Amino acid sequence: QVQLVESGGGLVQPGGSLRLSCAASGRTFSSFIMGWFRQAPGKEREFVAAISLSGLSITYADSVKGRFTISGDNAKNTVSLQMNSLKFEDTAVYYCAAKTPPYSGYDYWGQGTQVTVSS
After folding, report:
1. What pLDDT is attached to residue 102?
2. pLDDT digits (tens, 9 = 90+) for 12-63
């Protein structure tokens, strides 16, 4: 069983920055693919970014490229999402998720953390 706990959400002005963290426990973290997703009110959950912790390959949604950076720390079993140049449309609940072998889908999800971009 894998447990994921997000932290770091909050209220920020447009153009500001936030750093989200996700702490994982329970299994071999370095074999995971970790992802960040978000869901805004009235919208479907959408992909934000993902990192393969074994090979460190990274993907981003087009909407966050150049503004968000995902990183992982295998020693601490954490994955982070640095969010810069935040926009109103980045307001959402952000979820951390883990894809474990055989990587058929994201098996585990955190409880989510609220990010609100407002002036």
Report:
1. 86
2. 999 999 999 999 986 688 889 999 999 999 999 999 999 998 877 999 999 9
User: Using the 8-state DSSP alphabet, how is residue 91 labeled?
Assistant: -
> What are the structure tokens assigned to 20, written together?
């989200």
DSSP code at position 107: -
Q: How far apart are CA 84 and CA 61, in angstroms?
A: 15
Nearest to 54, CA basis, from 21, 103, 19: 103
> Helix, strand, or coil here: 83?
strand
**Strand, helix or coil for residue 22:** strand
112, 22 Cβ separation under 8 angstroms? no
Note whether 20 and 7 are within 8 A (CB).
yes
For residue 14, what are its two tokens? 């447009």
Task: Tell me whether residue 86 is exposed, middle or buried, using C-beta atoms within 10 angstroms of its C-beta: 0 to 12, 13 to 18, 19 or more.
Answer: buried
DSSP state of 26: S
